[in-house]
């Protein structure tokens, strides 16, 4: 009987299986003759197998060499690498990564991904994707790998992570034309954008369905409205593809702030993305917004601005959560922060918005010592250079739903009440007068007061000699009364039409401005200034301005008579109040 091919195959498999059990069919059994035949065959096949293995190894080596040539020819790009031991990395890796790796020693690295990169004159700012695991800064290295050269390594200048998801890494400045990538992830290289021509943040205002866009590079004049019709807002995931973006008209343009209509499709997208983010989902390619200049040479600014919804407007709420809040912008002022917060809490401030402009001192540790049940403090990372006015506008919008009044003062400025009225009395006098939108108060500038070292008990008790005449004024504003353009200069805002400001008398309220402290503190002013429209102290520009120290020039060289300067009137009013209100009767110490 003729057997089919399939039957013959099954027959061979079955006979082999039986032979295996009996010791034959390729096993170790069988007759001695048969085993000798197989051994001879194997010996004959040995050289062929070795030749094949050598050929296979040669081909694999060729693939590696070709790949290496490609890597060597890659562009010069820095990467960020951690120096952590593998055990530490394994301990902090995500649960999902541990599951993928089986929970053993080969657990995957933390998922660190660059979302944006911005080049500044002295550093590169890396904005990481929310949820990225950020090791301590001393564990980071910025790696620069130029073509045909050995790898260069520099430790990261700063690494910051906040509970709200903000994660920033600062690396040393990169050579021109370089991309940035990370060794901790498979993220593709990112080309750093330039800080001075950039849309850097945006807020969505649900009160009027507008988007407030903050941008550098338009060079609008300070304190004046620009021509809004020259610009339009552009929304999209990829702004380089005109067919895939939405545009909307700009309502107002002033300084670095543009307000435009939020398209209905963008509002729906933001609602959906907010719901997705609350469920733990993140968008790998988020929605961006930018500013386009209209005309024959249409141009759109580069953007990293993802529209962020403001707290929803509650038109039925009659009273806000806080009567008095404070916004400030600082850099490396941690040693003065406790005194400033504790003092202002005592006089009636209920909420603090601290905009941190690249501090690398102990600000996080200091804020961690403040009892959150007593001090309602939010630290917001604001890394943008020369942008204090934009930061204050940003803060005014964020504070609007919860704060009736907001003071815009610096960390070396202290509200003081020489008379019998308190802060609560003053605010109450004007809270029922909606046509009053700003309270202006004079500033007295204090000098070193004969000191050569930082006073151990704080600035309010350490400096007691000042200039006779006030130099400027600062403001407490009602956020609801601000002009929609959000124009502000030197700590005071333009107000809505029909709303006005009042000057508070110096006998009622004023500000002690500890501007000219001991040289150790004062010299830090030469490192740069946050205000947009004032020159840095080392610039040969507006040397005679009131923003400068009279007669100091542009060099951080201490004058011999510095401790005795700016001393025309001895004023111990605030010092006396502080000793009375804060001194511990048993130890004589102050709470800061």
UniProtKB/TrEMBL annotation:
TM helices/strands, residue ranges: 51-72
Keywords of this entry: Glycosyltransferase, Membrane, Transferase, Transmembrane, Transmembrane helix
EC number, UniProt record: 2.4.1.-
Top-level taxon: Eukaryota
Translocase listed as a keyword: no
InterPro entries, per database record: Glyco_transf_92
Subcellular location, record wording: Membrane
Record membrane topology: Single-pass membrane protein
Segment forming the signal sequence: none
GO MF, one annotated term: glycosyltransferase activity
Top-tier EC class: transferase
Pfam families on file: Glyco_transf_92
UniProt KW DNA-binding keyword: no
GO annotation, cellular component aspect: cytoplasm; membrane
Family under the similarity heading: Belongs to the glycosyltransferase 92 family.
Protein name: Glycosyltransferase family 92 protein
Species per Swiss-Prot/TrEMBL record: Panicum hallii var. hallii
């Amino acid at each position: 009987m003729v057997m089919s091919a399939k039957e013959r195959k099954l027959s061979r498999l079955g006979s082999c299986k039986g032979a295996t059990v009996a010791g034959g069919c390729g096993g170790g059994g069988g007759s001695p003759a048969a085993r000798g035949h197989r051994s001879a065959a194997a010996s004959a096949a040995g050289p062929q197998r070795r030749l094949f293995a050598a050929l296979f190894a040669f081909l694999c080596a060729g693939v590696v060499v070709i790949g290496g040539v490609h890597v060597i020819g890659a562009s010069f790009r820095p990467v960020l690498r951690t120096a952590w031991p593998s055990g530490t990395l394994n301990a902090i890796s995500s649960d999902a990564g541990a599951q993928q790796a089986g929970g053993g020693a080969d657990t995957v690295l933390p998922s660190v991904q660059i979302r944006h990169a911005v080049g500044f004159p002295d550093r590169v700012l890396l904005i990481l994707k929310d949820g990225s695991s950020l090791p301590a800064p001393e564990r980071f290295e910025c790696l620069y790998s130029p073509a045909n050269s050995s790898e260069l390594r520099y430790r990261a200048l700063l690494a910051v992570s906040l509970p709200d998801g903000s994660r920033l890494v600062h690396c040393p400045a990169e050579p021109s034309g370089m991309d940035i990538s990370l060794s901790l992830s498979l993220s593709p290289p990112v080309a750093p954008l330039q800080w001075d021509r950039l849309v850097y943040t945006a807020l969505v205002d649900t009160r009027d369905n507008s988007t407030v866009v903050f941008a550098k590079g338009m060079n609008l004049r300070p304190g004046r409205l620009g021509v809004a019709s020259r610009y339009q807002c552009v929304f999209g995931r990829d702004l380089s593809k005109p067919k895939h973006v939405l545009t909307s008209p700009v309502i107002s343009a002033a300084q670095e702030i543009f307000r435009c209509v939020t398209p209905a499709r963008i509002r729906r997208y933001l609602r959906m993305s907010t719901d997705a983010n609350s469920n733990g989902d993140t968008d790998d390619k988020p929605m961006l917004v930018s500013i386009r200049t209209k005309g024959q040479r249409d141009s759109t600014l580069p953007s990293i601005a993802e529209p962020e919804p403001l707290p929803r407007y509650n038109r039925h709420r009659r009273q806000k959560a806080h009567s008095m809040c404070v916004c400030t912008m600082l850099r490396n002022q941690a040693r003065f922060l406790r005194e400033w917060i504790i003092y202002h809490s005592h006089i009636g401030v209920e909420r603090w918005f601290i905009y941190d402009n690249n501090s690398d001192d102990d600000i996080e540790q200091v804020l961690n010592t403040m009892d959150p049940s007593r001090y309602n403090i939010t630290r917001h990372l604001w890394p943008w250079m020369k942008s204090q006015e934009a930061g204050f506008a940003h803060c005014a919008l964020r504070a609007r739903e919860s704060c009736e009044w907001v003071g815009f003062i610096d960390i070396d400025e202290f509200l003081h009440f020489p008379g019998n009225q308190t802060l609560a009395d003053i605010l109450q006098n004007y809270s029922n007068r909606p046509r009053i939108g700003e309270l202006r108060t004079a500033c007295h500038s204090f000098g070193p007061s004969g000191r050569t070292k930082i006073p151990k008990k704080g600035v309010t008790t350490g400096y007691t000699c000042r200039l006779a005449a006030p130099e400027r004024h600062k403001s407490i504003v009602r956020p609801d009364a601000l002009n929609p353009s959000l124009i502000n200069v030197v700590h005071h805002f333009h107000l809505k039409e029909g709303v006005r400001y009042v000057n508070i008398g110096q006998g009622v309220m004023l500000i002690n401005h500890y501007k000219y402290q001991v040289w150790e503190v004062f010299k830090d002013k030469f490192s740069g200034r946050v205000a947009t429209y004032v020159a840095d102290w080392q610039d040969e520009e507006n040397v005679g301005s009131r923003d400068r120290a009279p007669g100091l020039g542009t060099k951080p060289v201490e004058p011999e008579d510095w401790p005795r300067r700016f001393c025309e009137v001895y004023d111990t009013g605030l010092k006396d109040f502080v000793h009375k209100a804060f001194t511990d009767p048993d130890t004589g110490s102050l709470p800061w």
